[in-house]
Amino acid sequence: MRKPVACIVGRPNVGKSTLFNKIVGKRISITEDTPGVTRDRIYADANWLNTDFKMIDTGGLDLKDDDTFMKSIAIQVEIAIDHADVIIFVVDGTTGVTSTDLEIAEKLRKSGRQIVLAVNKLDTKGVEDKLYEFYELGIGEPMMISAENSIGIGDLLDEVVREFPSFEEDPDESKKIRVAFIGKPNVGKSSMINKFLGEDRLIVTNIPGTTRDSIDSDFTHNGVEYVFVDTAGMRKRKKIYENVERYSVIRTLSAVDDADVCVAVIDAEEGISEQDTKIIGYAHYNGKALIVAVNKWDLIEKETNTAKQFEYRIREMLGFANYAEVIFVSALTGQRLYKMLDTINLVYENYNRRISTGVLNDIINNAVLMNQTPSDKGKQGKIYYASQVDVKPPKFIIHVNEKDLIHFSYVRYLENQIRSNFDFKGTPIIMELRERKGE
User: Residues 6 or more apart from 227 whose CB is under 8 A from it?
Assistant: First the structure.
């Protein structure tokens, strides 16, 4: 089920990035008392009142500025607004309403989005006296905050969450396996989906960056229903020249967030790169089932161990996701594409796999018998019991006496023991230690 999205918009130097950092709970955006510091949007998870949502920070907007740099920001803000469910319009309470604020307000009203007006810098003397000026913006009731000192942010978020639309999950949609095809530009993601669909539904050229948005396509095979999501290729930051492409990345990240399975497509002729590992890393750290599809395999001259050596290099680069399934395919010829469907089905099944508590504890107890828990200064780590608390991905809670006594390498050992007893290929496993005091 898709998460709602809120984006922060306003002219330069009104405190947008400071507010963003307070909401997401970490210092992601650069904050500096210089207009225009935030050049790109920043995208992060947030939670308020048990509601998970996405936050987008944007660069300071000045619609009168014809500078190339400002035009770039304007395009990025436009895309962020288009992607958002709720817009937080931040204004500076110390300056009152400016002509730029009025222009931005008009633009936001035309967007048709829900808008929450935040008057920042409440902690500055005289700001409360200017509050009524902001009704002139025609946005609604202004909410007074201090992003710097965390004043009024709770009330602001109450209003934002209240304005989010409800996303009721369609029972028919929940039965479909949602597969996001991710990777660098021009590796064959669109061609691969077109081969499955049997039609040129997605634009395919040899020009990197043709896919600007994430595109959903329904597909059924042997009674199994899929949603294939084609995404814009993600380049190295220094290679992103086009303004619009910068903001296409947000849709790629969002597509990963909503997916069950991510197929990371790699160009066989280029091999795996550092940028590939970053894209795959995002899928891994967001707990997605993962397949690495090496495309254009028909173009590679092969010897006896060519595939094994190629896979070895991939796994060397993807040490953090060694559970990923690797398959060699050709979107052009269709080689092994339907075998890839079998692999998608397999990793999706593993992604949803649940182990009974009794069987799980037998595995853990046997693991401890074979390899005792660590000790420190004469104190032995103890494992009381384990339980699986979630799927998509599978999550296990290990109840212990003291978390500090159980080294992460021992937790990895326990994970490997679980994997050796059950098929969890293609899916990450979350292992969490939880202390039980006084036992």
Answer: 173, 176, 177, 178, 179, 216, 217, 218, 219
User: At which residue do the structure tokens 């160009």 appear?
Assistant: 267
Residue-wise pLDDT for 135-186, tens only, equals 999 988 999 999 999 999 999 999 999 999 876 655 555 689 999 999 888 8
Say which DSSP state 417 is in: H
Residue ranges and CATH numbers for the domains of the chain are 5-163 (3.40.50.300), 171-351 (3.40.50.300), 357-435 (3.30.300.20)
Joined tokens for residue 46: 């947030």
Measure the CA angle with vertex 411, ends 410 and 414; round to 5°. Answer: 90
State whether residue 76 is helix, strand or coil. Answer: helix
pLDDT digits (tens, 9 = 90+) for 67-91: 555 566 667 677 778 778 999 999 9
* Side chain identity at residue 284, one-letter code: H
The radius of gyration of the chain's CA atoms, rounded to the nearest angstrom, is 25
Residue 227 β-bridge partners: 178, 218
3-state secondary structure of 173: helix
Q: What residues have CB less than 8 Å from 165, skipping those under 6 apart?
A: 4, 85
How many degrees, rounded to 5, is the angle at CA 230 between CA 74 and CA 58? 20
What are the C-alpha distances in Å from 411 to residues 4, 40, 144, 398?
34, 38, 47, 9
* C-beta of residue 16 within 8 angstroms of C-beta of residue 57: yes
ω into residue 35 within 30 of 0, thus cis?
no
Going by their DSSP bridges, the two strands 51-57 and 42-48 should be labelled as antiparallel
DSSP track, 224-245: EEEEEEE-PPPPPGGG--SHHH
How many residues in the chain? Answer: 439
Q: Where are the alpha helices (DSSP H) in 186-321?
A: 189-197, 243-258, 274-285, 306-317
Whole-Å CA distances, 112 to 63, 88, 157, 380: 19, 13, 20, 61
C-alpha 254/C-alpha 86 separation (Å) is: 16
